[in-house]
Amino acid sequence: MQAETAQETMQALVIDRTGEAEELHLAEVQRPLRISDEVLVRVVAASVNPIDVKTRAGRGTSAAIGRYPAVLGHDFAGVVEQVPYAAHPLRPGDRVYGMVRVPRMPGTHAEYTTVSSMSLAPMPASLDFAHAAAVPLAALTAWGAVVDTARVHDGQRVLIHAGAGGVGHFAVQFAAYFGATVTTTASPRNAEFLRALGAHRVVDYTSERFEEVARDQDVVIDLIGNVKDATGTRSLDALRPGGLIVTVPTGSWPTMRDEAKARGIRATGYVVSPDARTLAVITRLIDDGAVRVHLDRVLPLAEGAEAHRLIEAGHVRGKLVLRVAPDPA
Length: 329
Ligand SMILES: NC(=O)c1ccc[n+]([C@@H]2O[C@H](COP(=O)([O-])OP(=O)(O)OC[C@H]3O[C@@H](n4cnc5c(N)ncnc54)[C@H](OP(=O)(O)O)[C@@H]3O)[C@@H](O)[C@H]2O)c1
Description:
Elements (H helix, E strand, L loop, with lengths): L8 E7 L9 E6 L7 E11 L1 H7 L13 E2 L3 E8 L12 E5 L12 E5 L3 E3 L6 H5 L2 H14 L7 E4 L5 H12 L3 E6 L4 H6 L4 E4 L5 H4 L3 E6 L8 H8 E9 L8 H7 L3 E4 L6 H12 L7 E6 L3 H10 L5 E5 L6
Parallel strand pairs: 9-10, 9-12, 10-11, 12-13, 13-14, 15-16
Antiparallel strand pairs: 1-2, 1-4, 3-5, 3-7, 3-16, 5-6, 6-8
Helix pairs in contact: 3-4
This protein binds NADP nicotinamide-adenine-dinucleotide phosphate.
């Protein structure tokens, strides 16, 4: 095992202050020091999530940024560099993927990251690093909302908003895998893509009102929130009495629970947690071919600002990934 020294540095995509995407730039920063149960990982690829974009813009989790320059980025695929103890189940050289708690921990948009042993898992054998990096945060969120919270099962009707996005394209597949009849909202260019992932019906939100075509749903997984076109409030019209709405962009609809209760509908938010055991289950579904990972595009780390702009524009299909290093042989 390599000795841990405080002086080592690394390349990272950083911000010196919150603001526009142009604040993002490459810099040489201190490599994070592994402590207690953490694993030090050499990052090969890392995805960009809306929370990175919101935080960079001064919203999201920006209030918790302890110091600048700050490295953002929640998930990664890479190679184990150091483990906490000799008999640890992971070994240096193992291919892993996972999720860290940014900004309490340094982020993954860098050459190295440290991650709790509870928050990473061996990478799916069937994926390259770019595809693997796209999975952890988005797929754990989809699983947490669809499986752990809504307990979606055979015979249910489930409406998923924004099925074509990072979280959505996993949510559609998980809900279909567990036997639900899945309706999802998207623009027409994504209809074919979503049907191929298992959606039974794709509602074109640009020309149709989803609550008029999708009625008596058991569950709504809302990945838009009430910030756009009153998507949350209108979802109450799509649910049966006693149905459940899970709103993932938390905080976008402060009166949700009261409005839902008045209609006899159950409502909750959901917040993702880095969870190695769930990630291992997702790994199996991916390696079994039951779940696919879609990359919109892969950009070099230096072009992180472009990735932020694309997410801000709101029409990424699947995931955006930053390449930090070439795939190891
Ligand atoms: N609480 C948590 O722990 C947690 C975790 C992860 C994500 N989130 C939040 O959940 C939201 C979704 O995340 P994400 O990563 O999936 O985002 P994303 O990948 O950026 O979502 C992009 C997708 O949204 C679709 N879209 C845009 N406007 C739409 C509309 N009005 N109706 C239906 N679809 C629309 C787009 O499809 P078209 O191109 O077809 O329009 C695009 O494919 C974000 O707000 C994110 O911050 C929260």
